[in-house]
């Protein structure tokens, strides 16, 4: 768990970034490509990559190969991958990355090497070799152009919808309303914000405030910088409803988005049904139903409620809208 400690001054210095940070999105998209079972939220993105011309597949593969080394799934990836200048856009961010001091590059890569063996090409990066840094930033730029830029409109609209919602909560209900809107991934226990996290750590803001950055490609839990002395940033996954609001299936296309079995599970839910009844209606095993309903809940399409001894699965408003649109 991540515990972020606020002072009274910090509560007046909470902000929500106006858009996603392109360098954080590069890192998170690498995580999504690495997953064996990609969330249904990213099916449109993966489908778009699947139809990418051959000339653009090579940059995706090259970028992913680099991200697989420098931003692995685990407890740590270097902060130099996501410099503060990324808030200004891709090019300012890449320029700042290329100017990372040698001391920081070496220290962060040495820390990364304590978790995994780094390839030989990481040594010139650690030495701040100009040629290596140019190659690295060119690789990330080409990856972004091929893997993320073609999908930018949907991602930007989704992020904008989430940000509007968070700012409305902040304006009408104050910081406590903003934190409440982030549940269950964040919980406000004054003066500490408790955040679901992959490692256990404490961050003391000490009057510096906190910048929240919405992300399309971040999933499951928010992520912050590893160095507590850097300007405090917490990148959080947007609510799935805002991603799905931008994906309106044409009639008969729901199965293409979520898969045939999950589409059948959605259609079978109605106003509320037990897992056993879902299994019977869809001719699916109980274990499979458990997996599918978990994915659909995480995507904001389904919910579960307890009524006495029974647990009922039902559609959310968004799930119902998708089913109705699919059926015409």
TrEMBL record:
<dbReference type="InterPro" id="IPR036388">
    <property type="entry name" value="WH-like_DNA-bd_sf"/>
</dbReference>
<dbReference type="InterPro" id="IPR011991">
    <property type="entry name" value="ArsR-like_HTH"/>
</dbReference>
<dbReference type="GO" id="GO:0003700">
    <property type="term" value="F:DNA-binding transcription factor activity"/>
</dbReference>
<dbReference type="InterPro" id="IPR036390">
    <property type="entry name" value="WH_DNA-bd_sf"/>
</dbReference>
<dbReference type="InterPro" id="IPR001845">
    <property type="entry name" value="HTH_ArsR_DNA-bd_dom"/>
</dbReference>
<protein>
    <recommendedName>
        <fullName>HTH arsR-type domain-containing protein</fullName>
    </recommendedName>
</protein>
<feature type="domain" description="HTH arsR-type">
    <location>
        <begin position="252"/>
        <end position="327"/>
    </location>
</feature>
